[in-house]
């Protein structure tokens, strides 16, 4: 394995871990449901995507073949996370889940 690929894998793992941590902190610390929804769907998706990309690069550079399963997991994650977040948000809007005063925007009241 080349030195460049080791640095690239390490960088992607650090970036992925940082984004996943930021997403988890957002889920725990943000005040209401709609703002908490952004943590796992935005930052954590990007973090897991970076971790999976580092896994693909690692297994490809060690001559163990292209990690098709990692690529499929990443594609599935990127396709399902926005759809599930949209469904959760629409269900919360229909149920009338309250927001805090600092939450901006009320698209369901137009």
From TrEMBL:
It comes from the Bacteria. The chain crosses the membrane at residues 6-28, 40-59, 71-89. One of its GO terms (molecular function) is sodium:proton antiporter activity. InterPro entries: PhaG_MnhG_YufB (IPR005133). Keywords: Membrane, Transmembrane, Transmembrane helix. This is Multisubunit potassium/proton antiporter PhaG subunit. It comes from Marinobacter persicus.
